Amino acid sequence: MNIGQVIALAKEWVETYGSRIPGFCGAHLNGSLNYTPHDAPFSASSDVDINVVLQGAQTGNPQDLPYKGLILEYGSLSLERYRSSELVLADPELAANLAVDSILSDPIGILAPLHTTVAKEYPRRKWVLARCEAEKQQTRQGLERLQHARSPVEAVSNLGAFFSAGLTGLIAVANLTPPTHRRCLILMKELLEQHGRADLHEDVLKLLGFAHLHTVPVQAYLHDCAEAFDCAVRVTRTAVPFGFKLHAHVRPYFIEGTQEMIVAGYPREAMYWILAGVMIANGAIQVDASDDEKRYFQAKMNRLLYDMGWSTLQDVTLRFESAKTLADKVFQVADDMANRNSRITA
Prior knowledge:
single chain, 346 residues, alpha+beta, Beta Polymerase, domain 2, 2 domains, 5-stranded mixed sheet, 14 helices, 60% helix, globular
């Protein structure tokens, strides 16, 4: 299956099912599909992200669904976020998607005019800087939560806002590159190397606790992730954070997709996704599994945290100070990137 065929199936799902959601106002693709040639092959380990725009809806937990061989994830976004081109242009998530032809359905005619304006205004400096500031704010919020974490597990769970929605997103936005999630550390590495600051990528890996890892231990942690994921899918009954990911059809997205990163030569960067999978799965296991399973998988979680250097609250305190320093350095580099980027217009 190629990208064009995947997009056709996404439109089909929207027309058949998405349009029936109460308050439906439109839908568009979200993510890397928007920037991939239509004749390129589609990886079965990738998902298809769709933003469903709803009247009066607030952003809630996405839903992962199997659809004709696809892992289809849709999130419900409020029409309010699309109220003006200015709001969209300042939004690092929405702007990159509406700067290109991502529209799947537009029954009330709100998305097409936004796309026209956003495509034209997207590279202007004022909007690039606005999106950079939004990513910086995400980083600051992640730092705030990291500072007040009550346990190493809580601290590590807050790294998502700090890294994937903050620092890595900031470097992408400053380069007029769409942010990404699963491959966020790989994209950050590539962009920092182009700017002559590969050292900052190493600093990020050190802060996370991944810098010393190599293929063999990472492969073992991926095995642990797969084992925990399968257990969580089997036992989960109670709603837990990111529990919408705990379905058998989502397994390739976590396991095979991560294996692809390892094979491609990015084992340390793949650890970010392995960590996410282990934490989501273990969160469900600790609620709904048997006592023996809870002990077994918590021991694996503890071993991973120990290997990363996140075992105690003292570790968290030390990492917080390092994270503040690192954030300042990345902020400065991102500002320099934006200033030097010839694709950014006045």
